[in-house]
Amino acid sequence: MVSIVGLDVGRNGVKVCAEGRLFTFPSIVGDWNERKLVTDYSDRGGYEIDVQSARKFIGTLAENESINPRHMLIDNKATDEAKFLALTALHLTGFTDVIVVTGLPVEQHVTEQKKAFRDLLFGQRGGMWDFNVNGERRLLRILDVKIAVEGGAAFWSAPQDGLVRLIDAGSKTVNYVTMKDRRYIYRDSGTLSFGLNTKRKWQELPIEDFAAQIAGELGAIKWSAKDAVLVSGGRANELAGLLRQYFPLAAALPEPLYANAIGYYRAGRSTVK
């Protein structure tokens, strides 16, 4: 049986929608080291992965036990760290044969970067993976990798007709997308090069200033105070409240943290009979 997995490899957390299940764990990767005292972190999003003799700590295990734990706050998503995170997530679904639907930001949605991300997930054996997570062997076959638009995918978690603006606030970037009658309007969509975890002079930007900066950027491309604006991301409810002084109709999506993963999953279901 082939299963669809909506996989959002975010820079702060990995989010998954698979056959009605939603789960997440931190996007932290760290080098493996031998532990004399072994603590199980799997109930708190911590895992040990071994892929072709490359061993890593993932999530809260990396945060607590690695010497150099790191979040994925870089522009390029086609990295070994993203591979380890994706395979951990796919292991946790329990599936064997999968079609993965994932995404890239609007500005990275070009042929070369999509191919690089697909090639990363297919690996060197055409989508066949044999690896271990927490000592459990996993035989996995990735049959296809489909790549959608981050932010745009979130729209499909709760689609609606008419003109809809969407703000997908991540830790590294902000994707902004315009949909009109369920079609993308590229002219009014793009990626802002700052996020909730980016810093100014080594200090995090307060979320109030973050909201104001988003509004200023989007006002410059003629987003209107009359527009319907949907917000996704882990702090979407708080951010939507702050954005209402600029966009009075701003509202968080129903499952804002998982909106992209849900959208990916639904897109995959719609193409597989």
Automatic annotation (TrEMBL):
InterPro entries to which the protein is assigned, alphabetical: ALP_N, ATPase_NBD
Residue span(s) of domain Actin-like protein N-terminal: 6-151
Top-rank taxon: Bacteria
Protein name: ParM/StbA family protein
Species whose genome carries this gene: Paenibacillus cremeus
